[in-house]
Amino acid sequence: SGSRSTGGRAARFVPARQQSTLPAVAAAHLNPVNGFVGAVGNTPLIRINTLCQETGAEIYGKAEFMNPGGSVKDRAALFVVKDAEERGLIRPGGTVVEGTAGNTGIGLAHVCRAKGYKCVIYMPNTQSQEKIDLLRMLGAEVYPVPAVAFDNPQNYNHQAKRHAESLDNAVWTNQFDNTANRRAHIETTGPEIWDQTNGGQLDGFICATGTGGTLAGITHYLKERSQGRVQCWLADPPGSVLHSYIQTKGKLMDRQGGSITEGIGQGRVTDNLKQEVSVLDDSVHVPDEESIAMVYRLLDEEGIYIGASSALNVVAAKKMAERLGKGKTVVTILCDGAYRYQARLFSRKWLESKGLADAIPERLQKYIVL
Ligand code: PMP
Predict the structure, then answer these.
(1) pTM score > 0.95 for this model?
(2) Is residue 326 flagged as an active site residue?
(3) Are the CB atoms for 113 and 141 separated by under 8 Å?
(4) Rounded CA separation 92/157 (Å)
(5) Is the minimum distance from the CB of 242 to ligand 1 under 6 angstroms?
(6) What is the per-residue pLDDT for 166?
(7) Is residue 105 in contact with ligand 1, taking CB distance under 6 Å?
(8) pLDDT at 4 over 50
(9) Who has greater pLDDT, 135 or 18?
(10) 235 C-alpha to center of ligand 1: Å?
(11) Whose C-alpha lies nearest to ligand 1, atom 6?
(12) Comparing 133 with 18, which gets the higher pLDDT?
């Protein structure tokens, strides 16, 4: 293909892993990589020390906020673009179109610049101006459109599809139902977690879903590699239907209410989730009060500055660890940093408007600085 970089590791150097006395994960970072796309993935697995102490279990977060575009979605962005190239849906100079409220768009904008494609993003006009500005700074063409339900033809996803169809040499990457998204996690995140836990020495994996790519892909890999031994659970915020779907073994309710946890929560079983949803062992619901408190707690106790979906995942991992028991090992995903949400998450006015100011324990109130 005519793309600028191939995504492989630069092969010119003796693999640092062979010379280094560093642990394998750190050694992986000694090898130079080929451009932005080469820097996607291979993120550290962070032991969350205070929660391990509190539960007597081992709780780890995969530091996806350390991807070069800042989130777990860099992996999916790279894989859906590579998939379009491999299937001949896009040629050099072409256009990638997607409907996304955030991290996927940012990942795609980076990948498109690195590979020389144009990037067009449709998003609901309820999103913050910072997100729109950032995407435009990354070279994307952005269309904020009225926020209407998925079954309305004016929904941002359908508008993205029509835009791609109206252009020559353009692809709608369709992150919700394009299983190249899930494949990113079958081929990269899942194997990394396996290797980072000393060859699959983990008992549980849990995370929330937006498109479902992360949960389904990692579940697919861990279940297959461990012959079903590793427990895989879903974590769900308020306003999402998947927790009740799993608990009722397949009843789909209407969406009710919402959550502060941007990027997660779902009203349907996406194609990315379809195959794995029946394989999941259990699910937990996490209220916003617990997610926001964990944002502050991880900052205070661990120096880890992550967004609300990541904090929800950590709360859920703690619940799973408590249920599996002392000495068990649970892994979750730290999807992105708090930087993209800090004007909200650390603002007293915003917290009060959501009824969440009292969810922050007294000793952590000092972090409400905006
Ligand atoms: N957290 C954040 C902040 C996200 O942007 C997303 C992507 N929508 C997710 C979690 C969920 O990832 P996935 O789409 O793979 O389910």
Answers:
(1) no
(2) no
(3) no
(4) 24
(5) no
(6) 98
(7) no
(8) no
(9) 135
(10) 12
(11) 263
(12) 133
